[in-house]
Amino acid sequence: MERYLKAVHLLLEHPQTLRWPELQQACQRALTHKPVAWDFPLRACQATDGDESLLTPALAAMTCAHMGILLVDDLLDEDPRGLQHQIGVGRAANLSTALLGMAADVLQNAQPALSQPAMAAIVRMQMDTAYGQELDVQNPASEEDYWAVAHAKSSPYFATGLYLGALFAGAGGESASQCYEFGALFGEMLQIHDDLNDCLSAPANVDWLQGRSPLPILYAELAPHGRQARFKELRSQVNDPAALQEAQSILVSSGAISYCINELILREKQAREHLSQMQLQNSSPLGELLDQMLAPVQRLMARVAR
User: Fold this and answer.
1) C-beta separation of 75 from 137 below 8 A
2) Smallest Cα–Cα separation from 205: which of 79, 69, 73?
3) Reported pTM
4) Rounded to an integer, what distance in angstroms lies between the CA atom of residue 64 and that of residue 83?
5) Mind giving me the DSSP string for the chain?
6) Mean pLDDT along residues 102-119
7) Would you say residue 297 has pLDDT above 60?
8) How far apart are CA 97 and CA 206, in angstroms?
9) Is the pLDDT of residue 305 over 60?
């Protein structure tokens, strides 16, 4: 936690933050609203037995990137809780651009030997994520399309966080690349996990209301089953709690939930196999990520089985 606070204070002291009140407020919010994966660079550093005191630029960059990406997500989802409703769409877009730019800037000012590969990684993350968001707003119409979105939109952030942690830990290019691949698998797992939670939540979330196609809904619409036509009919009625409940029951009976859980477990096995092949001083910080991911899925399986 101390490392994270130091990273946020680095952002608060940035010249751009000092002259831009909304940017300063965003960084202030980060003190109490930590990104879900703020500790990914720290985990990679611990796994490679690096010096945690060197991580401040990586933690700051990933915090900036998370805030910028979240602003774009809120704009695309028309999230009623989004900051754009307070400051306007245009200013929220400007703030997102500034945050993503600042992520690269704090890495530019890091150690000379690390700044170039670190900046390349964060720029690649931004381009890949933007492409994934572009694919997502087009609404995947097939499973192949869905996995293209998941790989481009969900994986780069987590993969880059681990990559930067290993890089700043002095682990070397090969170890950093292995951490990146592990993070990419984790990102796909998290996308499936989030899709399951969103599709089974009540009231209906944005995926239902905007006609999106997360994996469970996509399966129930495309895979042959006895209630396929009824499910498609219900898609436009989910503002009604009874219709939503019926649609969610079809996700269970059609095999959509089981299919998604199986896809998640397959990737978890791939990630554990990859982890076993990585030459790490201590693999537990990364293994814990998988354990934490699977715990709520096991609870979901128990819930669906009732």
Assistant:
1) no
2) 79
3) 0.92
4) 16
5) -HHHHHHHHHHHTSHHHHH-HHHHHHHHHHHHS--TTTTHHHHHHHHTT--GGG-HHHHHHHHHHHHHHHHHHHHHHT-TTSTHHHH-HHHHHHHHHHHHHHHHHHHHTS-HHHHHHHHHHHHHHHHHHHHHHHHHHT---SHHHHHHHIIIIIHHHHHHHHHHHHHHTT--HHHHHHHHHHHHHHHHHHHHHHHHHHHH-SS--HHHHTT---HHHHHHHHS--TTHHHHHHHGGGTTSHHHHHHHHHHHHHTTHHHHHHHHHHHHHHHHHHHHHHS--S--HHHHHHHHHHHHHHHHHHHHHH-
6) 90
7) yes
8) 24
9) no
Per-residue H/E/C for 222-287: HCCCCCHHHHHHHHHHCCCHHHHHHHHHHHHHCCHHHHHHHHHHHHHHHHHHHHHHCCCCCCHHHH
Closest CA to 256 of 299, 304, 302: 304
What gap in Å lies between CA 215 and CA 131, rounded to an integer?
19
